[in-house]
Each structure stands twice: as C-alpha cells, then as structure tokens.
Amino acid sequence: MGGGHWRGDVFADARVCLSNRARCDFEALEYSMxxxxxxxSARDIKKFRRIVSDYYRTNGRTxxxxxxxxxxxxxxxxxxxxxxxxxxxxxxFHSFLLTFPTLRALAAASRREVLAAWRGLGYNRxxxxxxxxxxxxxxxxxxxxxxxxxxxxTLPGIGPATAASIAAFAYDVPTLFIETNIRSVFxxxxxxxxxxxxxxxxxxxxxxxxxxxxxxRWYGALMDYGTFLKKTHKNPSRKSAxxxxxxxxxxSQRQLRGMIVAFxxxxxxxxxxxxxxxxxxxxxRMVIAAADGLVAEGLLEKRKKRYRA
Length: 309
Description:
It is built from 17 helices and three strands. By secondary structure, it is mostly helical. It has two domains: 1-245, Hypothetical protein, domain 2 (Endonuclease III, domain 1, Orthogonal Bundle); 253-308, Arc Repressor Mutant, subunit A (Orthogonal Bundle), CATH 1.10.10. Strands 1-3-2 form a three-stranded antiparallel β-sheet. Mean pLDDT is 89; it is low at 1-25 and 31-36.
C-alpha cells in the first residue's frame, strides 16, 4: 500500500462514513482514497478475511455484551471499554447491569449511585457520561438508544468511533471505525515493514474488507484476532502514528482525582480539609485544584464549602 499525504477532502469523506448511518457510499470512499493509496486485490482481501474468520470460528471470545447485545448493554460496554481492558470490564459490567438493569433504571439513579457502581473501572468521567447518555436518551429519544451514528455522536462522551461501534454492535449497521485491536490487525497484515502507520492509511482497508452483511460479527472477529496478535507478537500498534504512551498512574493527577471521587462518593460529602487529610503527602493546592476541577466537570458539586457526590 502506497504512502503519500492525506488530503483533507478525502479525510472528510471518511468522516462521513464514521459519523453517519452506514448508508454511506463505500464505493465512492474507496475510489477517492484510491487516488492516494493502492487498493488491495480481491485475492488479498479474500485471504485476509479467511484468516480472521478462521481464527474467530475456533477462538472467538464469549463476552456478555455479545451473547445478548441489546442496545443498552452495547452502549454501556462500549463506554466501559474505551480505556479499560476486557478482562477488567467483564465482572464490573455484570455488577453494573445488576444495579441498573435497564436504561430507565440508570437514568433514574443519582450521580452518587452511578459513580459508586463505576468504581474499579477508572476514568470516572465515563461513568458520568453513561449516566448522562441514559438521561438524554430517556428524555429525548423515547428510551431507545439511537441507531444512527450522527445522532449517537451528539450524546455526552460519544465520539465518532464510539458512535460507529455502537451502531455496528447494537444494530448491525455497517459503519467504519478503528480501535486499538483493529489497528493492530491491519498493521500486522498490511504494513509488516512500515515504521509508522496512520489511521488514514488503515481506513481504506477497513472499508475494503468490511463484511457489510454481518458487521457486528466481523468487527468482533477483528478485535479478537487483534488481541491474539498482541499476545503472540510484539504489539503491532507500536507502529501506529497515533499511539500515545500512558503516563504512570501512581502519583499522577488521575490518581488524585480518582482518590477524591472515591472518598466523596463513600462519605456523601467532604470538606476541603478532609480531602487534604485523605490525600496525605499531596500539595494542598493541588488537592483543592483537583477537587474544583471535578466540580467544573460535573463529577462533584460544591455547596456551602462542602464537596458532594
């Protein structure tokens, strides 16, 4: 596959497929991309599909959001999986669904209840987002998770890729998106000698290889195969132009924020002094700044000098 510069008009075509319901014009997209990148032969595409499908047929994972992929369960799982590994998500997904078995139950819950149920997943803002999504869907979409990525992307915390994946897994809509395991598969198979690969180079191949009749199954197969490749090869995604090395968690601002949220959720309320004492060893100004930042983001409230969940 050739290199070259990624022109904005072609990228815009791709964004249409990522963010609009999958009646997008795949052929037009592939044609416009073909002016920059060499299309793979039908033989190459067939071979690639067979490798992925054969692996999935014998090694596909049984995941709770796949065995019963209701739109609500898919919505919750996709937000949980944004920055958390599958093995860690599974038990917390089960417990979250036991606490909030329906979209309406989640929408009716308090923020404190949701953040308490989210504990262990990290990135508490995602817990806030899934709660806000539920409330918005109940209020504006008659309690039905939208099938259109262009509508999904307007929900709190839902970007184009997450919107596309929800539509694919919940409604079998043939959208286009890339996530870390999918990225690994395409880099491993189509860019074995490349040092740096952009998503702009991968997206045409996602379009060419997509099983448009069964997109949910196909994307599941890609993700499972990508997980396998990461365990058996040096992570192919290391060659991605978009890979960012995560900073250490211990001692980070993220750890401090999580500590504050957990403390306030457990107690219900806390003063600035109590937060400073709980975060022993941290600069008091950093603790207060972190708490006030959580208030600004809607994760906590502050009334009468007390922080509340």
